[in-house]
Amino acid sequence: MQYIGRFAPSPTGPLHFGSLLAALASYVDARAHQGRWLVRIEDLDPPREQPGASRQILASLEAFGFEWDGEVRFQSQRHPAYRDALQRLLAQRHAYYCDCSRKQLLERTGSSRYDGYCLLNPPLSESSCAIRAHCEAGEIHFEDSIQGPRRYRLDDCSGDFVIRRRDGLYAYQLAVVVDDADQGITHIVRGSDLLDETPRQIQLQRYLGFAEPRYSHIPVAAAPDGQKLSKQTFAAPLDNKQPLPALIQALEFLGQAPDASLHDGTPGELLSWAVVHWQPARIAPTLSKPAPLD
Ligand SMILES: [Zn+2]
User: How far is CA 57 from CA 54, 63, 179, in A?
Assistant: First the structure.
């Protein structure tokens, strides 16, 4: 089986150190396995997007020496495929319409965990409803190649989850699963902030009859004080004119040890070195790590 990996940023802003880590780890892991590496822009949520961000992201990837295979895919052009998947889930009763507001749910249950009300009491009208996927009882487990074995009970934690929003926008969970399957993605390497989303994606893959990719969740970069990265720290946009220092810091963050001779090379040379010397076992099996200091 050929390895096919991907990097799938949302165009909510330019790439920063955190997104560089995901791009780098997914790229190097794919190339180290003689695999393909695809780029997919997850532009599903226009209100959250920043004009020009897609173009900026692709320009950064080029400046940092990444070479992707095939055409860049834009999720905004994939709505018919998401609609088809929704129809299948609805027809198989793995999904259902829900018109509960957050407020109603909170009043009814005292929590944000969805209680399955509309599964038993379908709304009278399907217009202006969300669509939720129903979570099967039982455990979902998978082996993350960095974080180790993970076990979840979806019916216990968040309950049935939204796959199409009330405003008609498709949810990330649905789109990512449909596109990963359609593009034949075999390996997903991404930040650990998405680790706990994985069981929902596996649930949808099972319903839709898709193969389950192999998952690797790398640690995310936290500000040195342990806080989440902010604009003032490493969420600052990458500097396309100075790719090397950030690439070296990112490789070191991932436990790799580029030697000093590479500091004067090109981004392409550094990436080629990383592919040949890639040691994924040296990535720390933690959810987050302090970002390097400038
Ligand atoms: Zn409901």
Answer: 5, 10, 20
Shared domain for 46 and 70, answered yes or no, is yes
Owning domain of residue 67: 4-76+219-290
Ligand 1 centroid vs 97 CA: distance in angstroms?
Answer: 7
Cα-to-centroid distance, 115 and ligand 1 (Å): 8
The answer to whether 190 and 22 have CB atoms below 8 angstroms apart is yes
- 13 and 87 fall within a common domain: no
Has this prediction a pTM greater than 0.90? yes
- Distance of CA 85 from the midpoint of ligand 1 (Å): 20
CATH of the domain at 116: 3.40.50.620
pLDDT digits (tens, 9 = 90+) for 200-221: 999 999 999 999 999 999 999 9
Expressed in angstroms and rounded, the spacing between residue 171 Cα and the centre of ligand 1 is: 16
What is the tally of structural domains in the chain? 2
Q: What is the largest CA-CA distance in the chain?
A: 68
Write out pLDDT tens, residues 85-130. 999 999 999 999 999 998 999 999 888 889 999 999 999 999 989 9
